[in-house]
Amino acid sequence: MRPETDAQMLRALYMQGVQAAESGDAVTARPLFYRLLSEASRLGDLHHSNLALNEIEMLDGALRLYSKPRGMHVMLTARCNMACPFCYAEHMGDEDLPPEVCRELKGLFPYLQRVVWQGGEACLHPEFEDLIKESAKHRHMGQTLVTNGLFLSERWMDLFAETAKFDLMLPVESMRPELHGRYRPGSSWAKLAEKVRMISEYRERRNPKLSLSMNVVLMKGNHRELPAIVDFAAENGFSAMVLTGLYQCSDGFYRQEHLSFAEAREYLDGVMPSVRAKLEKSGISLQDRFSPPAAPSADGAADGRKPTVRCRAPWQQLYILSDGRTRSYCYCQEDIGNLKSETPELLWNNARAMALRKSMLEGRSSRCHQACVEGRVESYNFRMI
Ligand code: SF4
Question: Ligand 1 within 6 A of 329 CB?
């Protein structure tokens, strides 16, 4: 079928190129990306021009990039209205990303495929509203807001509705009031359930495109609630669910609540078939970051072969912390710079960023997180499409 519009033609070229590149066929991929570059430049489409240039630079194994970042994950502030015992931002003080850095990030909007906003609680950042208003001018940008949900109001929803593609990601660990209170001090199950109802009602009335996803941290105390949480997601129109384990956090809580896959296996082996069936029937996609990969992954770790990483994060994205420190992805252990002292353009091609790209090309993963090296992070997190 012939694409009907310029936008469809660009998208089709891009997808054909990615498919060829992903199957290792650079001979087919390269001319497709050059054609995409030429068509997008002719149409003045900065976003697709940048995608094409970035793909060509990845095929070439370039260390210094002329393309701009395609993705950003931004922790806007470490401040929060809640005090969850497993929060990463807990160790980050109460810093906000400086307003001048926020202004510089807006300069990347014409190129971005995807942005994730998070905190702390991102809604507390004084620039957040302005960032969303500006992002609405860039129709190619997909956005996710990871939020505890308590600030969400009709006014915020109206702002999100102005953007092209917006996803709200809410945390649900327990629907039992007492346990919810223990995991999410400062909130309550009743408050969160009320916000979910408000969002569902808003979507029906005003903006069915707004999507809703759920993050569930599986722990000792809550993992048996998973089937009930899945029912709640299905009843309330969620379209995606992410299952994760507990990351290292405050000692006492971690000791009490950390659940390994081995400990949960017997229970999960019993319920996961029906959980998956229910999710599929309800049109909810699942990212299971809790269970180890079932089959040998393309990245090679799960079957005992020598682990290698096949990660394009250093060519594609920036992960920005509220104190300005910046990495390629949340799993990276080393910062490549700090946006308080470098502009995004300088940082993108500084010596550390280029050294990380070089180490990826040489198959050296000594700088990388064990989870990446062992193939416990899905490949698609390393490759933006
Ligand atoms: S730590 Fe993971 S995400 Fe970061 S560069 Fe290494 S493999 Fe990629």
Answer: yes
